[in-house]
Amino acid sequence: MTELFNNWLFIFPIFFLIYWFSLRWIRVNNILLFLFGVLIYSWGNIERGVLLVMLTVIDFLLVKYIYPVKNFRKAALFTGIFINLIIWLFFKYFYIGNQMIETFSFPIGISFYMLRKISYLVDNYRKPGNLLCDFIEYGLFVSFFPQILSGPIEKPDAFLHQIQNRRTIQLKNCIDAAQLIILGLVKKIVIADNLGLIVDRVFRLDHPERLIVVSGSLGFALEVYSDFSGYTDISRGISSLLGIQTAKNFNKPYFAFTPSEFWNRWHITFTQWLRNYIFFPLRRMCLKVFSKKIPLISDLFPLLITMVSSGIWHGNGITFLVWGIYHGLLIFFYRLSGLDRSRQNQNPVMKGIKWAAMFVFTLFGWTIFRAPDMMWFFRVIFSNQWGFSDYALIVSLSIISMIFMYALPLILLRMVELSEKAEQITKPIFYAAAIILLVIFSESGMQDFVYFDY
């Protein structure tokens, strides 16, 4: 898919010129965006685009013509959700490894646009008439090209409200957008792609010492953050050039003190989706059925189902399932023990301990997530040596030093953001240096984004 964008680089400027020229006509803008999104998504494999349009048509017809019939509203809702889920499950679990099916291209991004479509179906059911739109507008919501492959997962009402009103493009928006795109490319090309080479080598070892695995997990934590948040930055930058403001998906997740805070900072739109469409409905159902007499069920069950759903959404391996269960139990333990309470009036030492503990728990989770399989993970945990010998120690320190080197752009950016009065001077210098880094590292090309596979 990255090659697709590379081949289309000369088309984008032409599209943007036409789009900006037609800003006074909202309808024309929306048609252009819808058709361009479907065209990009279908490029090289028409089946992807056909599937996308077909599923979009089904949703729209259900909401437009079946929802208004009171006796069939609930049936229409479950039908729409069932169709979307069954198509997603088919490609997620039965596509890979089936040679007959694999003659068709895997619909990249289906895990993301499936969530957008379900949120539209549910929100229309909950609040009839609040999300009025025509087919082009709904099709644009699903196929919006900066987001269709890896999000963010926009809320229907927020997105539809923007595309139903005239957009304006201001110079400040263009400058901010350019900075986001540059930063996203640096995160991806300079940091994530280079760390990925190191991390892959660590997790391909059969019997790595634990110290090497720890350093590899640290590298993966930075890799997956840089890769995914880099895509989000690029997506937000392109959206801003179109006059559409999209959701922020990351907010310094590794500064979190508790698991709940981590998920409020990491993949924010996905966390909100899980909370609104899985956790809260399950929680209300459990409280209604069991009241608060059985807190283990009313508190733990919705949490575990939500986090298991997160794991299943990310991949079909057992490691993803265990990763989801791990985070569900971790959140429950913090709540049960009171560790997730406010940090106000806590001394700096206690805050430092809480942050360090949460960061270790996060790295442990990433180790499960990135492990080739659970047998490999259990060997590392229970059988392999710590590796404080000369060889393993040298390898681990080398990996950590390279992680620090590639993390320098993020560290410098944080220093620029904290400089306040000097930011007007330091920010242009930072982005000038970032462009130089991109010129140097772009020779090696750009790998596909990690979340294209989820």
Textual characterization of the structure:
It is built from 18 helices and no strands. It has two domains: about 170 residues, no CATH class; about 280 residues, no CATH class. The model has no long low-confidence stretch (mean pLDDT about 85). With about 450 residues, the chain is mainly α. Helix 3 packs across helix 4 and helix 13 packs antiparallel against helix 14.
List keywords for this structure.
single chain, 2 domains, 18 helices, mainly alpha, 454 residues
SSE pattern: HHHHHHHHHHHHHHHHHH
Distance between the termini: 14 Å
Query: Low-confidence parts, pLDDT < 50 over ≥5 residues?
Result: none
Largest sheet: none
Assign a percent range to the helix content: over 70%
Helix-strand category? mainly alpha
Would you tell me the overall average pLDDT?
Answer: 87
Q: What is the number of helices?
A: 18
Report the portion of residues in β strands: under 5%
SSE layout and pairings?
Layout: H1 2-7, H2 11-21, H3 26-42, H4 46-66, H5 73-94, H6 110-126, H7 135-143, H8 156-163, H9 171-203, H10 210-241, H11 259-265, H12 268-290, H13 295-314, H14 318-337, H15 348-370, H16 374-383, H17 390-418, H18 423-441
Helix pairs in contact: 3-4, 3-7, 4-5, 4-7, 5-6, 9-10, 9-17, 9-18, 10-15, 10-17, 12-13, 13-14, 14-15, 17-18
Provide a brief overview of the structure.
By secondary structure, the chain is mainly alpha-helical.
